[in-house]
Amino acid sequence: MSTIHAERALTPDGWRQNVRLTLADGRIASLDEGAPAPGDERTAILLPAMPNLHSHAFQRAMAGLAEIRGPGVDTFWVWRETMYRFALSMTPDDVQAVAAQLYVEMLEAGFGSVGEFHYLHHDTDGRPYADVAAMASAIAAAGSETGIGLTLIPVLYAHSTFGGAAPNPGQRRFISDRDVFATLVEASESALAPLDGSVLAIAAHSLRAVTPDELAFAAALKPDAPMHIHAAEQVKEVDDCLAWSGQRPVEWLLDNAGLSSRWCLIHATHMTESETEGLARSGAVAGLCPITEASLGDGVFPAREFVDAGGSFGIGSDSNILIGVADELRQLEYAQRLSRRSRNVLAEPGASTGRALLTAALVGGATALGRATPAIAAGAPADFVSLNAEHPALIGRTDDAILDSWIFGASRPAVDSVWVRGRKLVSGGHHGRREAVFAKFRAAVEGLAARA
Predict the structure, then answer these.
(1) Structurally, what CATH architecture does the domain formed by 2-48+378-435 represent?
(2) 3-class DSSP assignment, residue 135
(3) How would CATH label the architecture of 50-369?
(4) For 277, what's the count of Cα atoms within 13 Å in the CB-facing half-sphere?
(5) Which of the residues are catalytic?
């Protein structure tokens, strides 16, 4: 049992001062107000740790390698070919090293948990490893080493495009039929078993990559688990879906997939007004990855309309080119400002934009990852973040102005410490295993470069 005293803490009831937390068994056993007591660990500003609902860990190692323009118009589809080539070269050891480096960076940025949307399953020739979950086990090992809360999301990926088209060679490490995928899901669950606080979810990559029957099959494998799918990220995807089915991707999912709060639609960028309202009514979470969506030229999600319709959203780092809670939330709001030519789009009149963004993303992210919503409250998981009150952006700030200044005014990291399930993993902005993890990451990336 340990105790922490915070000068200010953001609780479900709002900001409170002089808060004492007692931690036991990975949870906040009690929360009281009062002066610090001998033996308390003391901090200035305490916030819930943010869930990261969508990550492709292996892509962290290729950040910056797709920024040379080719002939013609450079698009997502050109970037995807670079990603395929990179994915074909990675071993399970490479994946573990890269994922661990990524998860250290996530924790140092204020994320407490991650949804690993995992489709790099098989050996370089496309055949399953002798241990079908070798890659999933590598992800689990990275989660164990770093301490991040891991929701592992094995992904069914069977086809190259709509209508059950045969996969192309660059996709061979992703491809599974139903039997292989079912085995992979069970083996992934076993790989997670030793990992405290882990969750298993399920995904179909996209409507491009599965048939309707395969989508239903994946969703039925673990009917109580969260279900994720990419949807409507690119205009070409929308056009191809229309040609295949006569419906747009989100429209098709609303009519055929039984969307509910169990579901998370990643991106959902290109929606009509009726799709936006329907997705909000369904209870499904919109999994927004603002930095990646900007990097890939996806477009701008209709966030104001979605929120007005009662929709729930969370944030993810997707291609992992840049890792930061504040960065993702800022990019989400700034994209809305640019497209609407107005300010403070995602706050209600008179309210803090930073508070609105943080609160919504905590709830939506936790729902999508099958986790309790992070909260500084008795009984909640002890997943929280302290900010450095001496950061230049935070001097003299109180309450919601802290959030606004962190998200919109901090030009360098402001996260000081991070606890996950009551374990202090980051102190002074530094993860306890940063150097050891980086050494393995460096060796892996240098090996990938030599093989390339």
Answers:
(1) Roll (2.30)
(2) helix
(3) Alpha-Beta Barrel (3.20)
(4) 3
(5) 267, 318
